[in-house]
Structures are given as structure tokens and as C-alpha cells.
Amino acid sequence: MTAVQIFNQYSFLLLSAIALAIVAVVLTRQRARPIFWVVWGGVFVGVVAYALMSRVPQTATVKLDTAADIRIAIQTAGKPVLVEFYSNY
């Protein structure tokens, strides 16, 4: 994975972290009141919660040619299975 792909995949998190760090520096230099720190903490918790919930589960693509192969794959998977059928016609 190249640096551009990593940035593209995690750009929201990186930019959010940079913005939160800048706001924290400004709040520290301005000796902000506690309410501003509470708001900052709430935004921080929201970004972390979004990052944890937005993780996409990994999927695997398997080509099955016969109905028997599909039936066996579904029965032995041990977890939910999404079967998509594709036809050229």
C-alpha cells in the first residue's frame, strides 16, 4: 500500500486528529475555560467513536460454479453469508 493510498483511506481521521490538536494548542495558549475543554473532549470522543464504528469488515470473494458448491459453502461457513448471483443475460 502506497503513502497516497494510506492517506486516502485514513484522511478523515488524520485531518480530524490534526484539527483537534490545533484546537487543543489554541485552548491551552488562551487558557480557555473548562466548558471549552468539555466541548473539545466531546468532539474527541465523537471522532474516536466514529473511527471505531466505521471499520469495514473484510470480505472474501469466492467463485462457486455449481449449486452443490454454493450449498456446501453456506453450510460450512459458520457465519452469515451473502451470496450474489450474476448473469450476463
Plain-language structure description:
The chain is an all-alpha fold and 89 residues long. The protein has a domain at 3-57. Helix content is 65%, strand content 0%. It contains three helices and no strands. It has helices at residues 3-29, 34-53, 67-77. Helix 1 (3-29) runs antiparallel to helix 2. The chain is elongated and about 70 Å long. It starts with a helix and ends in a 12-residue tail after the last helix. The mean pLDDT is 82.
Low-confidence stretches: none
Number of helices: 3
For the record, give the distance between the C-alpha atoms at the N and C termini, rounded to a whole number. Answer: 37 Å
**What percent of residues are in strands?**
under 5%
Please, what is the average pLDDT?
Answer: 82
3D shape:
elongated
Total strands: the figure is 0
Largest sheet: none
Keywords: Membrane, Transmembrane, Transmembrane helix
Transmembrane segments: 6-28, 35-53
